[in-house]
Amino acid sequence: MSGRVRIPAWPALVAVLALLLLPMAAVGASAADGQPAVKLSKSQAGTGGSITVTGSGWRARALLMILICGQSVPSSGVTGGTNSCANADGRAVTTDAEGRFSRKLPVAEPPVPCPCVVHVATVTGAKGEADAIFQVAGHAVEPLPAEPAGGRLSVLTDTRLDGAGGLLTWFGAPPSRTLVFTVGNVGTSPVRNPVFQVGTSHGVFAPQWEEQQWRGTIQPGKKARIELPVELAAGAHGGYTVSLKYGGKVMAEQPWGVGRPWGVTLFWVLVCLVVPAALFRVGMAVVDRVRPRKAARRRGLRLPELALRIPGLKPREEARHALPSPPSTLPWFTPDNDPGTAGRLSAPHDDSPTSPTTPTRKGST
For residue 94, what are the CA distances in angstroms to 35, 117, 241? Predict the structure, then answer.
């Protein structure tokens, strides 16, 4: 009897395939879960030139904005917001189905000194951004402004918009909501009456910022619930984005879909129907008052005469008196005053001369 032990072939094959596929799966998972990345064709270029910006790890079919910003480093982000970027020379790009892109960017000097970065951020949808170090040749370079010592605020929860539209909003009143979020003091000193900047933007337009102060004190290591009012212009509708900025840095963004004010449309439809009808009625009343009546009077004098000639029509009493009655030949002779029949009370009889009852006149022969 042989001492060899046979091992089935298929378990060994499965083990080999697992060893080969596990690294590939890990690489795919890391690529899917990785953060957005940006690479530059050059790390330094002068004004008037151009560089090629490539990226990966972004959302599929996402709209991105590429800018050159000053006073920024990748570790701290764009500290001055888009105000420190060369916005006029920025470029937009849309990622492919795999979240990649490649776009040429003209080199322009930002409005603030370097250190500079190429800043790439999403325009719509979920927020995403990435920075790459870049040096604008010939542009001034200054140290980054020192961060203020003491308290620092950080957003701890997702922002939300509380509130709903009413009947007045349906008729074009300004839509309003309340931006609610929670911040925590991660610094070493209390923050008193912090001033936030709330911006609203429509589509790809830049947000319009408005300063709002929150009354209160946030101690180190503590958190507070902040509520700030947000209001749009009258008749606003469509997709909006509400942004929150503190200390020159955008802390959060919240999308806001505003419905169309259909009451305004209904109002103008009613105006287009009612106003012409009212003007027509007023015009007809004016025409009826100013038109001449002489022809109507002439026709009215002939109506009684026409009614007499038409059988079955009885003219009015005044029309009867107006018309002359036909003259009679003998107005004094009527059956009631006939002299021959006025005194007769007996039955009629023969009055001929041959009648035996008729008396003869005297002197007759």
Answer: 17, 20, 19
Structure tokens at 89: 């020379």
The CA dihedral of 212, 213, 219, 221, to the nearest 10 degrees, is 0
**Confidence bin at 13 (pLDDT 50/70/90):** very low
DSSP 3-state assignment of 337? helix
Distances, alpha carbon 255 to alpha carbons 127, 201, 330, in Å? 10, 10, 110
Rounded to whole angstroms, the Cα distance separating 98 from 143 reads 38
| pTM tops 0.70, yes or no | no
Q: Alpha-carbon distance 1 to 184, whole Å?
A: 77
Pick the more confident residue, 316 or 28. Answer: 316
Q: What is the 3-state secondary structure (H, E, C) of 165-218?
A: CCHHHHCCCCCEEEEEEEEEECCCCCEECCEEEEEEEECCCCCEEEEEECCCEE
pLDDT (tens digit per residue) in 315-361: 555 555 555 555 555 555 555 555 555 455 555 555 555 555 555 55
- The CA distances from residue 353 to 202, 272, 341, 350, 358, in Å, are 133, 103, 20, 9, 7
Separation of alpha carbons 316 and 214, rounded Å: 90
- Whether 148 and 164 have beta carbons less than 8 Å apart is answered as no
